[in-house]
C-alpha cells in the first residue's frame, strides 16, 4: 500500500500536468481541496497517518478508483432522458457525444434504455442562425473572442464585429447572444438570426464582470432593457374569459393578484421595466386586457391599437 505526503502528491500531479497538458503547476491548497472533494463527492476512503513530522495519505481500500464507481440503471435512465431533452434544442450536437458515453455505460451495466422522450418542447425548426448556436456556446465556455458578421434589419450589408461572448438566451423561439463589443466596450444583444458567420479569433478575451443573468432578466419580460428604463408598477385588468389563464400562467414572476371582481374579471400587477416584449405580450391578449397603469404604457398600447384599426380600415 503506497502512502503519500501532500508534498509528494503535489510533485507527482505537477509532473503529470506538465508532461500531458503543458500546465505548469498547482498549489498545496488545491491538493487539499481535491482530497476533500474526492472524499465528499466520490466517497474516496482516504485515510491519513502521522509518522514523525510527516503526515501520510493513503487509500484504506487499495483497490479503490474513481473510475470504478458503479453507475445504477436509474442513473443511466436519468442521463438518457436528459440527453433527449438536450437534443430538442436545434443546433446542438453536444448530445451526440453524450450519447456515446451513455452507450458505454449501458454496456457496463448490461442494460439497454428506452430511447423515447416523454417530454416535448415547442421548437421552431427553421430558425436562421441556429447552426451557429453550438459554436457560440463553445466559445463562451472556452473564453474565446468571436468575429461576427452581423447585419441588422436596417443595414444593407453585414458588418464584422469582435464580440466577447458571455451568455446565450432563448426567447420566443429566437436565440440571442449577450456579449461585450470590442470597440465600444459595452454589452450588446445580438440575435443569432442576424448573423452571417461566426469565427473564433486569437484576441485576448475580456472576462464578464458586469452581466449577471439573474439580475439582468429579473425585472423584464424578454431580453430588452430600454435606455434609462426603470421598474414600474404595471396594472392590468383581464376579462373573465382570460382570468383563469393569467392566474394559472403568470406573465412575470413578480405577478400578484390585486382584485378578483364580482363579474370574475381579475386585476393583477407586475413590477417590470416596460419594453417592446411586454407590449407584445399585452397585445397578444387582444381586447381581453386593459392597461390600468402606468398611463405611458396605456397610451402606447392605445396608439398601437389605433394603428391596427387603421390597417384594416380599407377592408371594412
What this model shows, in words?
The protein has 4 domains: 6-68, no CATH class; 70-123, no CATH class; 130-216, Roll (SH3 type barrels); 232-313, Alpha-Beta Plaits, CATH 3.30.70. It is 34% helix and 23% strand. A hairpin with a 2-residue loop joins strand 4 and strand 5. The model has no long low-confidence stretch (mean pLDDT 85). The chain has 9 helices and 11 strands. It starts with 5 loop residues before the first helix and ends with a helix. It has helices at residues 6-21, 28-41, 73-87, 94-109, 133-142, 213-216, 243-248, 276-284, 295-313, and strands spanning 46-51, 54-59, 146-150, 159-171, 174-181, 187-191, 195-200, 232-238, 256-260, 266-272, 289-293. It is of the alpha+beta class and 316 residues long. Strands 6-5-4-3-7 form a 5-stranded antiparallel beta sheet. Helix 3 (73-87) runs antiparallel to helix 4. The radius of gyration is 28 Å and the shape is elongated.
Topology record:
Layout: H1 6-21, H2 28-41, E1 46-51, E2 54-59, H3 73-87, H4 94-109, H5 133-142, E3 146-150, E4 159-171, E5 174-181, E6 187-191, E7 195-200, H6 213-216, E8 232-238, H7 243-248, E9 256-260, E10 266-272, H8 276-284, E11 289-293, H9 295-313
Antiparallel strand pairs: 1-2, 3-4, 3-7, 4-5, 5-6, 8-10, 8-11, 9-10
Helix pairs in contact: 3-4
What is the percent of helical residues? 25-40%
Dominant shape: elongated
Question: How many alpha or pi helices?
Answer: 9
Topology as a string of helices (H) and strands (E): HHEEHHHEEEEEHEHEEHEH
- What is the radius of gyration? 28 Å
Task: Report the average pLDDT across residues.
Answer: 85
Mind describing the biggest β-sheet? 5 strands, antiparallel
Name the assembly state. Answer: single chain
Which CATH architecture of the largest domain is right? Roll
Q: What is the count of β-strands?
A: 11
* CATH level-1 class of the largest domain: Mainly Beta
Q: Provide the number of structural domains.
A: 4
**Distance, first to last CA:** 91 Å
